[in-house]
Structure formats: structure tokens, C-alpha cells
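As agreed, record passed on underneath.
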Amino acid sequence: MRAPAVGDPAPDFTLEGTGGRSYSLSDHRGQTVVLAFYPGDDTPVCTRQLRSYSHDLERFSDLGAAVFGISPQSVDRHEAFAARHGLRMPLLADTDRAVGRSYGILGPVGFYRRSVFVVDGGGIVRYAHRTAAGLTYRGVDELVAAVRAAGASAGR
């Protein structure tokens, strides 16, 4: 399976997540979605990344976008991580790494690489950033700009 590039359909998925429910990408048709794949709960860079997205969540929601954090840890670990750091976006559990595999973000030994995708309301990838080392992350300003561009692309 080829990893999706900008302009490709985003692979659909359904994953269990925080808040005691399942989340499907297809449930968000008509809405821009930010998928933030991260290696692990309670790691320094992941914590900073998700806290920054959560802190500025209104910047995304004001544009009509949903934001999801996705990693291989269990929902129970996600719930504890979210509570500890006040994270307000859903965290989804890709415990078998199938979603990570479908997005091409797994490293050589199956670890998640920090990656972000913006999917427009029609289910098309409009922004994709995959890292090799994952020591930094894409900032809110860059992602908000990508969400704006995805909304403009969907309107064409």
C-alpha cells in the first residue's frame, strides 16, 4: 500500500479514543480534519506538541476543523495523559498500528514517526508532513494556514 500524498484520498479509519467513543475519519466528511500522529504519551516532545495544539484548539475550531491526536498507546493511557496535561482534543488509540501503516508513518522497526496530515472535507489529503527523527513538530501557525488552504481547495 502506497502512503498517501497531497492530493490523494485519505485512508479512512475507525479507532477507539478518549471520551469513551470511537472516531471515524468518514464521520467528518464536509469538515477539515487535522491528524497529528505522535510517538507516545508523556514523552517530552509529544507533550509539548499536543499541549500547544490543545492550547490553541479554538484557532482550529473557528475554521471548522477537528483535531485528533493518534498514537499506538491504549485508550486508558490516553485518558490519563489527557487528564494530566489538560488536553482537549480526542486522542485515538492505534494499538495495532494499522492506521499508522496506512498513512506511511511507521519507522523501520514499527515505531510511529511524528507526522501531521490535513484532510479536507472531501477526504483528500491537502497537507502532509512526515518526520524522520521527530525531535520537532509542526507549529499551530503552520497547521492553521494548512487548514485555511484545505478549505479553499475544497471550495474549488
In short: The CA atoms of residues 49 and 139 lie 8 Å apart. The chain has a mean pLDDT of 91.
